[in-house]
Structures are given as C-alpha cells and as structure tokens.
Amino acid sequence: xTMNDPRPGPGHPGYSPGHQRPLPQQANPTWLGHVQPxxxxxxxxxxxxxxxxxLPPAPQAPRRRGSVSGLLVAGVFLGFFSLFLVLPxxxxxxxxxxxxxGFIASLIPLGTVLLTVRFIDRWEPEPRPLLxxxxxxxxxxxxxxxxxxxPYFSAVAGPASGLDYTTFAVTVQAPVVEEFAKSLGLxxxxxxxxxxxxxxxDGVVFAFTIAAGFAFTENILYFGRAIxxxxxxxxxxxxxxxxxxxxxxxxxxxxxxxxxxxxxxxARRWHNGLSVLAFGVGLVPAMLLHSAWNSMGANxxxxxxxxxxxxxxxxxxVIVLLQVAERRLTRQRLKEYAAAGWFTAAEVEMLxxxxxxxxxVRWAASTGRGPQMKALVHAATQLAxxxxxxxxxxxxxxxxxxxxxxxxxITALRAAVVG
Length: 419
Fold this sequence. Notes:
Elements: H1 62-120, H2 128-161, H3 165-192, H4 200-228, H5 233-246, H6 251-267, H7 272-294, H8 300-339, H9 345-352, H10 354-366, H11 370-391, H12 396-418
C-alpha cells in the first residue's frame, strides 16, 4: 500500500478495528474536523525537498467543475421562469411606484446580510456561481415554490389545525412552506456541490445567502404595500422599514441558518441518505423559530428583547466558534503538509492565521505581488480543506487528484510570490 492509497476503513476490504494506527498528536485540533484513526494518512511527501516552480498542473476532475456551472445554469433557468409568477404578484400587490420604492428600500437590509455573509465566508470563500445560485433560489425560485405550495398546504392542513385562517397562515403555513422552499436550495447544493458544501460554515453561508434573497423579495412586497395601501405612505413605510429593515434584517437568515448548520454537520459524513435526513431534521428548528417570530403579536417588544435578541446573540456566538474552529483546522492540516516538505513552519503561520495573512498581503503588495499572495493564501486554504475531505475517508481518489493539482498550483504561486 502506497502512502496515497486509501486506508481501509469500515466497509472496505481489509479493514480490521484491531489494526488501527494511533492518530498523530493534534490530528484532531477541533471538534469541527474530527478524523477517525482508520482514515488518517500522512500528507504526500515533497520529493524535491522544497517547492519547485516546474511542476505541471495535474488534470482536474471535469465533473467537479461541471457541478458548479450546472447548478448556476439550473438556478438562472429556474429563476427566470419563476419571475413570470413572482413579478406579476409583486406588481399587482404594490403597483409600479410601490414596487420601485420597495425595491430600493429592500437593498439596504439586503446589503447588511450580504456583507455579513462575506465576513463569515472570508476565510474559505465559496465559489461565486454557487452564491449566485443560492441568492437566485432565495429571491425567485423559493418565492415561486411558496406561492405554488401554500394553497395546497392550506387546504390540507388548515382545517385539521383547528385554527382560524389568519392564525394558521401566520404561525403554521408561512413557517412550514417558506422554510421548506428555501431549504430545498440547500439540499440541491449539498447533493450536487458536495466539494464546496462540506461543513457547518458552508451551510451557514449558503443558508444566509438564500435567506437574504427571500427576505429581499418579501421586503419589496411589504415596503411596496406600505406605499400602495396606506393613506400616509411615508409614515407607514418608515414603520415597516424599521421593523423589518432595522430590527429584523437577520430573521430569515437565522431561521434558515439553523437548517444550513445541521446540514453542514451532516455533510462531514459525505452520505446522500444522511444529507436528506439532515434536511428534514434541520427544518424543525427553522420552522419553530419562524413560527415563534410570527407569533409575537401584541407582546412584540418584550418578546423581541427577552427572546429574539438572545437568539441573535447565540447565533453570533455559534458563528464565531465555527470560525475559530475553521482556522485551527486550517493550521493543523497545513502543518501536516509542512511536515511533508511543502511549507516551512513560518509559512504555515503566515498562511493559517489572520495576522499572518494580513502581514503577508501587505508585504506582497509593497513588492507588486499582492494578487499572487492573495491567490496563494486562497489556494493554501483550499488545500487544507481538501486534505480534511481526504481524511474523512470518502471519495478519497477524487480528492487526492484535487490535492495533486492544488500542490502544483501552490508551488507555482509560491515561486511567483518569492520571485
């Protein structure tokens, strides 16, 4: 067995629990990237002794590129046809002037959420085509799915609930149908872009992006109606904007973010059946949070301060803990490549810490090599997460192909930065 061959694990010929090698110290630096002993293998050795700029790039697996572009094309296609249902509804509810004002006003909370997504995603950025797919799904496709499903859900579940129509629509129908519609986009991303959806941080990023799109379209409706249906449109718009754009721009993001978080943990196992199960499980807290939000009613302010604000702060804490774990995991995996001769210890500190990255980019910019250094930082992060996927024990040969290509790319980028 060569160093790069998959180690036998459960379900593989030759696996025996009694012949596991002990994990090296610090192989599991955090709970986020736990590795089973039977799947651990050393990083491939750098046979040249030091990075050489002459290595040719290894071929990439075509199907992985195709999955990203395929999802983008599918998302744009579905989004385009969804507009034929969504746009007439918006225009009919708001009028032209209401739609225009609502559209402009909705850009403010949208920008707030998307800037937050960028902040969360800055360590290991997701491919832009997948983020575009997520936004289009949230802003158009999930709205269309909601509009199609709501009448059927109301006809089937409404009478059985025993609630009056308004209460049912607000506390049951909207949470169930809307969270299902939004999270379908997460399920597609997990099934067809598994390379880029392989952890809880990715799940949160994609969920927040989908939710930002959904809230954007929903805000156009609410802001536009404030203009079209009120005798005092200025005051009404200010009140609705304060409630939705200032007090709760992250409401949908937190609802759907719980689903993305749970699906992200399931993605660590790389199993389609578990992914679908996580989709169902993750919908439960999202629907409950959504229903609780819609049920605040007359006690809105007290409930907002005593319940919703702590939930928001808890969400912030979870995201911070995920980011810390992600950085520790990156550092440990790059240290393993350093042990194999691909980096020096100083380079690992430079590439795997926030302070090191900032210092490196500033230095490279002063020498005219800023873009190359940024590319090197990004490539090293991708390499660390590729290694984590290899150590998960699933789809190992395909990820080792990615690893060889990334090591060649890093070698060339390193040479370009050093000069």
